Amino acid sequence: MAPPRKTPDEKLAELHQKKARLEAQISSERARLRQAERKRDTRRKIIAGAVVLEHASQNPQFRDHLNGLLRRNVTRPQDLELFELDNPPDPNAHTTEAP
User: Torsion angle of alpha carbons 79, 82, 85, 87, nearest 10°?
Assistant: First the structure.
């Protein structure tokens, strides 16, 4: 015996349920992709940072330039402490006066 036919309202309700399930799957997949991209971005930053810090340890001129960039762009005290840059830069440190 064949199952009873669904009414148009029942068909519509079933389609709305399917739509809700698909929207949930889409949302879940988008979240998974965002998380994967955040992990990739974090890994890129770690690798780039390691390269920059290694180069700074070998090149005093680059180290000074990097320290200047950090002082100008890093504003949170706890972040400055990570780089041991908790003292504000001395604006007269590299100035020379003409005689």
Answer: 70
